[in-house]
Structures are given as C-alpha cells and as structure tokens.
Amino acid sequence: MENSLYNPYVTENILSPAGTLLGFCYSKPYLLDDEEETNNNDDIVAWKNHCANEAALMIIPVAVKQLKQIIAAPDQYLCWQHSRVRLAINYDALKECRLALPEITNVFQFWMLDFAPPGADWRLIESFPFSGIVLSEDFFNANYQKFTFPFLLSSFAEREIKVIVRSAQPAPPAEVMKALNISGWQQQCRPGSLIS
C-alpha cells in the first residue's frame, strides 16, 4: 500500500572515485513543499534507516526562503542536525543570509551548490565553513583543463572540503578524479539547478 501523503523522493547518488556510495542528494528542496503544504523533513531523514551504507551522506537542497526559516528556528529542524545530513545552499542564499548563517554553523553542516556563479564574491565563499562544494557539469567542463583548476581543487582538499561534480555524464576513471582532488561524482537525474 502506497502512502500518498508524501511526495516521491528523487535522489541523485554521489559515488566516490572507487565507485562506492558516498551519499545521495535530493533533486529538489523538500523542506516545505508549497504545493502540498507538508513538512516532510522527518521522513527524509528516516531514509537513514533504509540506506544500506550507514556512512552515506544525505544532501538536502535548501532555498533562500527555507534557509531563513531554519535560521529563525533551528530547534524545529533537529533531525537535520544529524551527523550525516548536509544542507546544500547556493550562492544567492549564502549572500542573502551571510550575516545570520554563522549563528547556526555549529549545529548544521553546509554544502555549496552551483559553485562560483559569475560575479561571485570569492571572499564570502572562502570565509564560510562549507564541508562540501558541488561543481556543475558546465563549470567543470569549462575549467578542468585550465592550469589553475587543480590548484583550486587542492585548496579545498587542504581544508577538508569535499568537491563533487554533478553531471549526467559517467564518472571519469578513479585516477582522474583523484588527480583533480574530486571526492565524488553526482549522477544528475534532472537538468538545471537542484534549487529551483
């Protein structure tokens, strides 16, 4: 029997260079679904009970409106403070909430989606304690052959920031991923940004 109260969760697997499951990312923000006005966050985190790999990370994209709700009432989102959960925000959310975000970085862990849009303030990105950064396929393809690209990625590796490439293409060989300091390859299921 199917529970129709919850949206179907579409996830994108994130594979390590060895091909093992590093984590999975929801392909749209599910904090609050405006269409159905349901809050499914408890059910999302319950996925940890269904995942065969207990070390797998759960990446949950969060839009600006939802991020403001989390900042206003972090105790309402205790399940998202789990050690395996990462809240993924884009540059717009980081920029808009930059003054309030430091108040919750001790209880939530963040990844940055759609890394480095044109005109981004690098100081803002570098000063925030992201634990992961997701590169789009377009960004990766436009930059991976540039001389400075490995240095950029190695600077993230030095700070123990996971670098993930989100792409519809198959992952490159493990040697290439390791040489570029890429922690994982996210299998893109739908086009466009994870935060719509």
Description:
With 196 residues, this protein is an alpha/beta fold. The protein has a single domain, classed as Alpha-Beta Barrel (TIM Barrel). It has 7 helices and 8 strands, in the order ββαβαβαβαβααβαβ. It has helices at residues 41-45, 64-72, 91-96, 122-127, 137-143, 149-158, 174-179, and strands at 11-15, 21-26, 57-61, 85-89, 110-112, 132-136, 162-167, 184-187. It has an 8-stranded mixed beta barrel. A hairpin with a 5-residue loop joins β1 and β2 (21-26). The longest helix has 10 residues, at 149-158. The chain is globular and about 45 Å long.
Short description:
The protein has 196 residues and is an alpha/beta fold. It is built from 7 helices and 8 strands; from the N terminus they run ββαβαβαβαβααβαβ.
Helix % is 25-40%
Mean pLDDT: 83
- Tertiary shape: globular
Q: DSSP helix count?
A: 7
Query: How many beta-strand elements?
Result: 8
Task: From the 3D structure, determine the CATH topology.
Answer: TIM Barrel
Terminal residue distance: 31 Å
SSE arrangement, N to C: EEHEHEHEHEHHEHE
